[in-house]
Amino acid sequence: MVKNLLIKNKSKYKQQIENNEHIKEHSDDFVIECRNLNLWYDEFQALKNINMKYRKNKVTAIIGPSGCGKSTLLRCFNRMNDVIEDCRIEGEVLFNGRNLYDNSADIRLNRKKIGMIFQKPNPFPMSIYDNITYGPKIHKIIEDDILEKISEKCLKRAVLWDEVVDRLDDSAMGLSGGQQQRLCIARALAVEPEVLLMDEPTASLDPIATQKIEDLILQLKEEWTVIIVTHNMQQAARISDNTAFMYLGEMIEYGETTQIFENPQEKLTENYITGRFG
Predict the structure, then answer these.
(1) Phi and psi dihedrals of 258, rounded to 5?
(2) Which pLDDT value is given to residue 17?
(3) 197 near 77, Cβ under 8 Å?
(4) pTM summary value
(5) Residue 278 belongs to some domain of the structure
(6) Into how many domains does the chain fold?
(7) Cα separations (Å) of 180 from 19, 119, 168?
(8) Distance CA 106, CA 63 (A)
(9) Chain segment 98-149, per-residue pLDDT in tens
(10) Nearest partner of 274 among 258, 261, 265, 257, judged by Cα
(11) Which domain, by its residues, includes 248?
(12) Residues 246, 230: contact at Cβ < 8 Å?
């Protein structure tokens, strides 16, 4: 039954893409766009004809059961899949109108502009201050006064400054899990990205830390575009403006979050969000 729904939804969603039924904004409203994106790990096809656009200064949640391609899609946006052996990609991923996979693409610059936050906090084994200034130093910012301003600004943006201002020289490894995750967000902000990719950023955190990260994400979208992968549908409903539902490597439905959760157009989407599978 699920297979039959998938075939039916595939055709219908393709028609939606072609007609741009679910996208009414001007093209300048979008920062990332996938065009006929396909990805294989050796002989296994993990992504199948992905077509979608991500709006600037919005939070987009990608939901779906484990193994459906959510994280693989996210990694396409800053070319992290490049390091995986036997990974092959076809199609386009446009960032501000330019294909990230062109031979002329500046991978280093694009990764600076498209930051990544992982499921498990990964602070560097160095001080809190050095974590924040690590990226700017790589990009040739060495003046102490500028680095101090960057550190304070980014820690405040990550709502962490008041908690660590008196111990910037302490090891980041001594922070709690939630603080470490906010530090990683502050570290990503220090190189002035345009997009923040978040792969299950609260999966390993307790409810209080999770709420702080969710509140932070809602603040971040005022200046950045956020794309988040989450297994928590309640989280997607709480913090995202748009939601994409994936299944078996395909984009089944994509639209405004309220529409996806309150009035899904595809039976497969409805079955997933109502807990019938997944």
Answers:
(1) -60, -40
(2) 46
(3) yes
(4) 0.89
(5) no
(6) 1
(7) 44, 12, 13
(8) 30
(9) 999 999 999 999 999 999 999 999 999 999 999 999 999 998 999 999 999 9
(10) 261
(11) 2-273
(12) no
